[in-house]
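TASK: fixed-backbone design
INPUT:
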């Protein structure tokens, strides 16, 4: 008796399967400065905190990408800088089977979302070890940031019409 495998021909015509693998998470660069210590510790602690985010990435191989999430936090008391902390949290991601249109959001939004908790922990630890009250960064909507970036990149420059 002969058995037929009807499904084997269908599998070869299917789209390649999608794979996303977080291969490595690491601190690429860290900086912590307290330019006005120890005097700043005598000030009333009512800081203004500025947070800057940036992401970038590069292909390491055909299906391997590095994404780096950069976060810079500057805390000031009045005009004095209490601390400045900068963390570049990086990850290596194995990515295959995704369309070109899926790669942008994947690397520009999803990967930074995965890296953010690691960066938040590093920043909190550095600030606390620097003698300051814990800094807990609030969640970030990387999807919205990515969409804003795409909108700005797609905007055509405003052309002025010369006056005749």
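OUTPUT:
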């Amino acid at each position: 008796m002969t058995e037929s495998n009807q499904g084997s021909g269908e599998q070869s015509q299917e789209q390649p399967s999608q794979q996303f693998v977080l291969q490595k998470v690491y601190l690429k660069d860290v900086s912590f400065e307290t330019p006005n210590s120890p005097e700043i510790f005598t000030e009333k602690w009512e800081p203004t905190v500025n947070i800057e985010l940036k992401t970038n990435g590069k292909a390491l191989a055909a299906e391997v990408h590095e994404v780096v999430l950069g976060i810079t936090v500057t805390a000031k008391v009045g005009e004095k800088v209490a601390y400045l902390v900068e963390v570049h949290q990086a990850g290596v991601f194995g990515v295959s089977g995704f369309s070109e249109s899926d790669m942008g959001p994947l690397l520009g939004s999803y990967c930074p979302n995965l890296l953010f908790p690691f960066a938040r922990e590093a920043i909190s630890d550095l600030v606390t070890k620097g003698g300051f009250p814990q800094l807990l960064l609030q969640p970030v909507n990387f999807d919205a940031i990515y969409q804003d970036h795409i909108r700005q990149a797609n905007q055509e420059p405003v052309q002025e019409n010369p006056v005749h």
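COMMENT: Confidence is low (pLDDT under 50) at residues 1-12.
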